[in-house]
Amino acid sequence: MAAGLPPDALGRRVACGTDYGTVRYVGSVSSTAGIWLGVEWDDPQRGKHDGSYEGTQYFKCRHPKGGSFIRPNKAHFGVDFLTAVKDRYGLNDKQDVQCGTENTVVFGTKTVEFVGMDSVAEQQRQVQLNKLVDISVRECAVSHAGQEEEISRTCTNMRHINLSKNLISSWETVVAIASQVQNLETLNVSENKMRFPSTSTFTSSAFSNLKILALNQTEITWTEVLLCAQGWPVLEELYLSSNNITVLERPGNILQTLKLLDLSDNQLLDGNQLHLIAQLPRLEQLILRNTGISSIHFPDAGFGCKTKMFPSLKRLAINDNKISQWSSINELDKLPSLRALQCNNNPFVDTEKNPETLKQLIIAKISQLEVLNNCEILPAERRGAELDYRKIFGKDWLEAGGHWNPEKNKPSEEFLAAHPRYPALCLKYGAPEEGELKGQQPLTLKNQLLTLTIKCPEKPEQKPVEKKLPESMTIQKVKGLLYRLFKIPGSDLKLSYKSSKLEGKEVELDNDLKPLQFYSIESGDCVLVRW
């Protein structure tokens, strides 16, 4: 074995310059002298071959050109945790002030020896290390825990550790570090390609207080997650982005405290995999960005009913997927607690060219949604979206057997499958009347003009004025028009409107940048002007 080469070199993570890899072979190579390391590189472009040399296969690589041989002295096997911490925070021996030679200081011609200077410096370092609460040793080549109990003696106040992108080769190393940190709450070990236990061989109390854990890009599988999770009794946030997770399993009685789960950038087999984690009782946020899912379905609940799956889920991210049917959006209304949704970059989005109409359709289909694609849904916006939806699909509703007389109202199963919220919207706003739905011709400029009555409650002597305004006209421009009409500065005007369909209610037109159609104003409505 080459001098300085660790006895457990096989399988270890190494760095060579800025490149990272895993040692797959240690030994001689034909027609060459000395010991070589066969390395499978994280970046295949760093490699030269698949582990073969002159017809002999020394090791295997996932990529046909992902491997190469290097000499042991070119490989950096890493440092222990405390060495990395001291280097990172400037607390190592090299950075102590050197006084003369050894522990002496020269005054003129007299040399004075300071007894115990080493121990004083060490005590000062100890005090500084004990003050550290939040520690980051990202990209500091940490590969092992170091001497037993040394971390627990030195860093007594640590709560949050960032160990991402180091040279950690196995989960056992993580346990060895964490077991020496009594009150560890946050741990990031992302970007460490490591081995995880394949069987539940031991239970450690290392993570008894851990609330946040990031395992992104560690090549962990869901089976391995469940094995390790037996030691995470109070975990609340788990980040598992960009791993080998394709299938899920029921967690059983573990992960019961989990509030956030990030599975983004894992190619799940299908949307039905979600059913296997649907009973996590406290899960509030689920991130499924770029997971390859094409549909979402909750088979335990019918039209207009709530599912028992994901009982606490408030925030869902399904952007950058393959969802092509609106039926999956309909299904989301079954989630009893859903309040926020991200769904950009899915094929169903392309079915509607107008982004404003697309937004209104989603809002109308999901009753409790408060935030869509990071934008808050205002009450007036929801009301407008629901009224428009009720009107747009009113003709389809009538043709499918819908009727404003409750005794005759029997819409078909096909219509309810496509528009499961429609009955609820009829209950909320009343069934659409035949007169509302007549003459829904293709939109022309004439059809887009609204005939509105303008009134000034503060000037009873002012006669109501009738105006024809484009429904695309913004509130700001309406105010400009009314300024010219009533000689009142537009900035001082406050607008609202009343509709015969909303008896006793007055809706404020409070966003100058929104068009009239945003507020679902219709011909015949009355705009009230105050200042």
Automatic annotation (TrEMBL):
**Domain Ubiquitin-like: start-end pairs:** 450-529
Main location (coarse class): cytoplasm
**Alphabetically ordered keywords of this record:** Acetylation, Chaperone, Cytoplasm, Cytoskeleton, Leucine-rich repeat, Phosphoprotein, Repeat
Q: Which residues form the CAP-Gly domain?
A: 27-71
**Pfam families tied to this protein:** CAP_GLY (PF01302), LRR_9 (PF14580), Ubiquitin_2 (PF14560)
Please state where this protein is localized: Cytoplasm, Cytoskeleton
Q: Which GO terms describe its biological process?
A: cytoskeleton organization
Q: Name one GO cellular component term.
A: cytoskeleton
Subunit: Supercomplex made of cofactors A to E. Cofactors A and D function by capturing and stabilizing tubulin in a quasi-native conformation. Cofactor E binds to the cofactor D-tubulin complex; interaction with cofactor C then causes the release of tubulin polypeptides that are committed to the native state. Cofactors B and E can form a heterodimer which binds to alpha-tubulin and enhances their ability to dissociate tubulin heterodimers. Interacts with TBCD.
Q: Which family does it belong to?
A: Belongs to the TBCE family.
* Functional summary from the UniProt entry: Tubulin-folding protein; involved in the second step of the tubulin folding pathway and in the regulation of tubulin heterodimer dissociation. Required for correct organization of microtubule cytoskeleton and mitotic splindle, and maintenance of the neuronal microtubule network.
- What name does UniProt use for this protein? Tubulin-specific chaperone E
Originating species: Calcarius ornatus (Chestnut-collared longspur)
